Automatic annotation (TrEMBL):
<comment type="function">
    <text>Component of the MICOS complex, a large protein complex of the mitochondrial inner membrane that plays crucial roles in the maintenance of crista junctions, inner membrane architecture, and formation of contact sites to the outer membrane.</text>
</comment>
<comment type="subunit">
    <text>Component of the mitochondrial contact site and cristae organizing system (MICOS) complex.</text>
</comment>
<comment type="similarity">
    <text>Belongs to the apolipoprotein O/MICOS complex subunit Mic27 family.</text>
</comment>
<keyword id="KW-1133">Transmembrane helix</keyword>
<keyword id="KW-0999">Mitochondrion inner membrane</keyword>
<keyword id="KW-0812">Transmembrane</keyword>
<dbReference type="InterPro" id="IPR019166">
    <property type="entry name" value="MIC26/MIC27"/>
</dbReference>
<dbReference type="InterPro" id="IPR033182">
    <property type="entry name" value="MIC26/MIC27_animal"/>
</dbReference>
<keyword id="KW-0472">Membrane</keyword>
<dbReference type="Pfam" id="PF09769">
    <property type="entry name" value="ApoO"/>
</dbReference>
<keyword id="KW-0496">Mitochondrion</keyword>
<protein>
    <recommendedName>
        <fullName>MICOS complex subunit</fullName>
    </recommendedName>
</protein>
<dbReference type="GO" id="GO:0061617">
    <property type="term" value="C:MICOS complex"/>
</dbReference>
């Protein structure tokens, strides 16, 4: 067993030693000519100049190009519409999520009040048979009246804001009609010759 250890340790210890090796050229052979970098095949430059030639378009590429050119206005319109409606849809989704959260944790007595308000709208719809104007006025009016009984503070605020908006719209309409009346009927050229103005 001693001999096996000695033989295996000897070559392993030699592998840890470092040696320097000096190579000397033979005195009989002439010195070789050093090669230049241009002579190596790796760095050779091809002769002549390359020129880019565009390949002709195929029938498929032409038809795809025409289709893209034809659809470009529609795709740009869709992108504009999407960019305009995206914030509105996000706010609508957020409103739906908030409403769902509110209905999950509704205050006590909310659902009976909601039922009474909905029933008032149905009564208004039943009473409005026959006339389109009544169908537009009665259900919201009955529902508004029922809601104002349960939520008087919010109803007062709603009536105040709605009254201000209605007054503002009426005033604007009056100004437009007045401008049209003055512009069309009181011009000097519009006065017709009456029998007394001969």
């Amino acid at each position: 067993m001693f001999k096996v250890i000695q033989r295996s340790v000897g070559p392993a210890s030699l592998s840890l030693l470092t040696f320097k090796v000096y190579a000397a050229p033979k005195k009989d052979s002439p010195p070789p000519n050093p090669m230049k970098i241009d002579e190596l095949s790796l760095y050779s430059v091809p002769e002549g100049q390359s020129k880019y030639v565009e390949e002709p378009r195929t029938q498929l590429e032409e038809s795809i190009s025409q289709l893209r050119h034809y659809c470009e206005p529609y795709t740009s319109w869709c992108q504009e519409t999407y960019s305009q409606t995206k914030p509105k849809m996000q706010s609508l989704v957020q409103w739906g999520l908030d409403s769902y959260e509110y209905l999950q944790n509704a205050p006590p007595g909310f659902f009976p009040r909601l039922g009474v308000i909905g029933f008032a709208g149905l009564v208004g719809l039943l009473l409005a048979r026959g006339s389109k104007v009544k169908k537009l006025v009665y259900p919201p009016g009955f529902m508004g009246f029922a809601a104002s009984m349960y939520y008087p503070q919010q109803a007062i605020t709603f009536v105040q804001v709605s009254g201000e908006k209605l007054y503002d719209w009426g005033l604007r309409g009056y100004i437009v009609v007045e401008d049209l009346w003055k512009g069309n009927f009181q011009k000097p050229g519009n006065v017709k010759n009456s029998p007394g103005n001969k």
